[in-house]
Amino acid sequence: MTGYGKINLLGMLAMPAVATFAAVIMFGPRVDTMVTVFCLNIVPMLIGGLFTGLLLRGAGKAGGAGRGIALWPTLIPAAIGIVWYLWDALLPAELDPGRVHIAGPQYLVMIAILSGVVAWVGCRLVRSTRAG
Predict the structure, then answer these.
(1) How confident is the model at residue 96 (pLDDT cuts 50, 70, 90)?
(2) 66: which DSSP letter?
(3) pLDDT band at 105 (very low <50, low <70, confident <90, very high)
(4) Range of the domain at 117
(5) Which phi and psi angles does 28 have, rounded to 5°?
(6) Most buried of the four, 7, 34, 41, 110, by CB within 10 Å?
(7) For the chain, how many structural domains are there in total?
(8) Where on the phi/psi map is residue 96: left (φ > 0), alpha (ψ -120 to 50), or beta?
(9) Element holding 50 (H helix, E strand)
(10) Are 61 and 123 in contact (CB under 8 A)?
(11) What average pLDDT does range 12-28 have in this prediction?
């Protein structure tokens, strides 16, 4: 596994782990809550990780052009999710404090898909400018 593959895997696992940690801060160490939050948040990261894996494979065939851009579908949703969950754990809403744990993964799926498309276009541009 390359260094970029390790970063991809770290991003895929870090965000659900931080979301689970934030749920423990908010609701206490309940096993059912921790498993649910982790499973809900691994889905967007698997989608982003799939995009990243495919883009990294293409970047490897193209001599490594665009590898940094290829990490965007994993790292952008992971960074947004980590900040979002920690912010809500430290400063919870007075009404319905756990709403982000249900709504968050839906938004993160959209962010992963959007950043995957943008990264694909970016990788294509980088490869075409290197080839030409």
Answers:
(1) confident
(2) T
(3) very high
(4) 3-131
(5) 90, 170
(6) 41
(7) 1
(8) left
(9) helix 31-61
(10) no
(11) 95
